[in-house]
Amino acid sequence: MQNGSGKNVLKPMDSEQLREYGHRMVDFIADYYKTIEDFPVLSQVQPGYLHQLLPDSAPDHPETLDQVLDDVRAKILPGVTHWQSPGFFAYYPSNSSVAGFLGEMLSAGLGIVGFSWVTSPAATELEMIVLDWLAKLLNLPKEFLSKGNGGGVIQGSASEAVLVVLIAARDKVLRSAGKNALGKLVVYSSDQTHSALQKACQIAGIHPENCRVLETDASTNYALRPELLQEAVSKDLKAGLIPFFLCANVGTTSSTAVDPLAALGKIANSNEIWFHVDAAYAGSACICPEYRKYIDGVETADSFNMNAHKWFLTNFDCSLLWVKEQDSLTEALSTNPEFLKNKASQANLVVDYKDWQIPLGRRFRSLKLWMVLRLYGAETLKSYIRNHIKLAKYFEKLVSQDPNFEIVTPRIFSLVCFRLVPKNDDEKKCNNQNRKLLEAANSSGKLFMSHTALSGKIVLRCAIGAPLTEEKHMKEAWKVIQDEASFLLHK
Fold first, then answer.
1. Is the pTM of this model over 0.90?
2. Taking a C-beta distance cutoff of 8 angstroms, is the pair 372, 312 a contact?
3. What does the pLDDT look like over 442-453, one tens digit per residue?
4. How far is CA 128 from CA 11, 141, 322, 344, in A?
5. b/e map of 329-343 (b: 16 or more CB within 10 Å)?
């Protein structure tokens, strides 16, 4: 449109344009999912490819949606690794869904920045409600519900969740031990714990030499041994140090190892150590009664985290964190500048989630989790998870029947860890072969897996959990793997 001088004036919130463009964008994304199997799962482009295809500067004048979408098709999609593809088996899944997409769209459309209750009361209160809903589905202790001193909050990722509780634990100890005691604080975890904890320690000022990374091995399927923790804690106490934080895992990144929560929690509680449970991937499975046993002992934890954006059909980002004492978070993270003061907050009548996280701003993320829970329902979500575990059992069986391969560590959820077996006990050659097999399988464009190292062995990880994956995709993936392995073994 033009103003009186004849110059173009931007009108960004044009309802009719939104209606037209919105319909076309939904059609574009729907077509993408309809044809997603036509794309190579792992992008095959070379570094810097996009710099050669796009101009050096932004356009001076508006371009059409057709022009933009044409560029998405021709230039962007070739550089996309298709996480929602049925052939995506790398890392862990990051689920998208119609319900999650609609919730994300609604959140973007409302465009609120819900850092405090007054900035959008529904955003705060819905978040409290849906986190309570999910806590009940997981059968978490009542101390984690919002009715008491605890409650849940949506973080961006498990990395943010562990940083937030580490800072809360640190400040809680320093309030009694004195700020000069920072150099005495000690953190404990297994060597299978996500690197997010290491980064959190770096940010929180925990001295690297005070991070106890306790060794695991195949004898416990890479779970942390309580006696090893007790030994480390006792040694540090004798040295005049202050054990203050333990991170345990339910479903490690490498192999879905499950640490013994009850035994670890007993040690943590008796030594006044903050006990955090990271169930980023596997927490979703624990809504199924038959898998709830894997978080037995969570009642001893101070905090618990799972990613709804991994295996719970809720688009990234949506990491769920529960704490027993919300005051520990707010005392460490709250700020109260004049421009944010309001009656409800000053009277302590409401929760202000800005004081439960690192940034001030936050999106209306609870909408997508709410829509997932409502549009699918708990029983459908349980069936969804069970189906992926069934597919993993099927793939595990295929691997087990081939004498060229072995299962490296027992499957618990929907991750299968396997490798080519070594010939003549030559582990170095075996590792090289498994690396080559991974590269060859991924280069086929038909699947994408990632790898890890367990006890020095290079292990292939087939993490099943993409929304569109069916048994036929597991058969196709296994055929590619077998064909590439046959070629490697007979070269």
1. yes
2. yes
3. 999 999 999 999
4. 36, 16, 10, 17
5. beebbeeeeeeeeee
